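Reading group handout, session on sequence-to-structure problems. Before we discuss, look at one worked example. The prompt was deliberately terse, the way you'd type it at a terminal:

> structure Glycoside hydrolase family 28 protein

The input record follows.
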Amino acid sequence: MNSMRDQRVNEKRRAMMKAVSASSLALAGGGAALATGSANAAIADDPWGRAKEIVDRLNKPRRFRDQDFPITDFGAAQCKLVKIKAWISHDDQATVETQAPGSHDCYPAIKAAIEACHKAGGGRVVIPAGNWFVAGPIVLLSNVHVHLKKGANVLFSTQPADYAKYGEFDCGKHGKLVITRWQGNDCLNFASPIYAYGADNIALTGEDWTSILNGQGGVPFNGKDGDCWWTWKGKNRTINPASQANTPGYVEGKLTQRLPNPINPKSLKDVAPHLTEAERLHIQGEGERWRADEQYLPALSEAGVPLAQRVFGLGHFLRPTMIHIIGCTNVLLEGYEVKDTPFWQHHPVHCRNIVIRNVHCNSKGPNSDGFDPESCDMVLIEGCTFDTGDDCIAIKAGKDLDVQYGPSQNIVVQKCVMQSGHGAVTLGSEMAGGIQNVYAQDLVFENIHWATDPLNTAIRLKTNMNRGGYLKNFYVRNVKIPNGVQTSPSFYASLPNSPIESKTVAVAAGAVVTFDCDYTPTADTVRTRPPVVDNVQISHVTVGNVEVKKGPKKGQKAACYQAVVILGPVSNNYNGPQPMPQVPPVTNVTISDCDFGTTVSTEQPFFLYNVRGLKLNRVKIGGKEYNTTLSA
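And the output record:
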């Protein structure tokens, strides 16, 4: 391996970890301490008081030096647009506008403007109204505020190679790459269209939602037909999906993130010779599936392979997130629209003191999560609108052995609108480092596409015996869901010999509240980390009925298939050494003052497994009120 690259990766990570840790202590007189020690008891006594403390602290205005750096001063020029046919969702194509062939590349100008602003001590880099083509990443630096004026339309290149040209780490045939995290695991990979690493006091803002950052995720790479970023997803896993059953441009057998990549090693021995034979076989599992890029990266984590040796980029199929901010402090994201992103829309990792406000998260392609804070502390998500092809918000905290950044904690979600998506407010599935102290309030889950592309579930937890981790202190109140959620059940495949049979529990879609501690169990070979779920309080959720579109209740009115599905950890799925660790039930969940509307499954409005003491207080389902405590 490249020992110089190993050294530089390790030095950069150590410097970033040190800077963020110092900032965490400075934030607060105890900002991080909200989550530890005796603070847990105080949170339980007054959770919404704690939420207000977080909001008040993060709402302090950000300050930047008063100087503008227009990108036109550094050589940026507008591009002309042409119309082409492109994918706009999992299933739909339409005519869209993209940059004309041969358009001027604004990457050098924007890079020069940001560097000049940073060198001057900070200020504002201004992108004026107009159409701007960028063939490379916009890299944010400390004390720089990048601002899009009304009518600014930034179109990012659809060529993967443009995100493997400028990275700090030269990985030969795989390109010049950057440190990233992909679905909870660290790697060297394509730069994101907007990227920051280890920066302090940064902002990305727009004047309004005509200030657009367009990832062009559904635009074909060749500009005419064939593969686009979204094709790399591969085949859908969900059983009985009501919508989003397809992947744009995918045909059976096409190489994607889900099929064995022939350039990956034939055995983990080639990259992890320290493993015993038993350890290697445990991580690889049976057959060749572990060689698919989406399985190979977690295998490298489980095997303890250093970051510098986890090289992806060119020749691989791990799509970059749109806005990827790693190890940064004092971050503001506000006032723009992000659309058609290659992968997740926003992905801050190991950040402190971050606000996203009044952003339109508008991408309907595969894995188009709206905002995914991972191992972040002190986060405010406020006034945003989400129209997504996956979870609207998904709070995460590492996967496999990549837990060095710790938990996600002290997060407030408020005054947002979720128009569509999989889960509206989701925790996981990558949560090995833990999630705690999350507050969600005053939300509207509109579910505007309820007839054709319904919201799968509203309040969602995803983990399993691989992802493990914990969820503690999760509070939800004042949620309106006028058009219900999906009224038909969707499932994931279960493991052989599991007590949870496939096609029986509606954890993929169909319930208003879904806690799935057996999320896609067949996807993970190593299953040795039981998750913990404790202290969840949900109140004042109101769900409206809509017309059922399929099944025996077609034409009738319902709000959901079931009101609440809580599938606790499944001990049978454990496959590690004996003695098996304790596999605890889901505990201390209280649901109160809610009206879940009418369920399609009238005989079984709840599903519970490995749950102790679910308290229902003044909960209405189909007009019947429940005041009881349930265990299973």
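Points for discussion. First: The two ends are 52 Å apart (CA to CA). Second: The longest helix spans residues 3-26.
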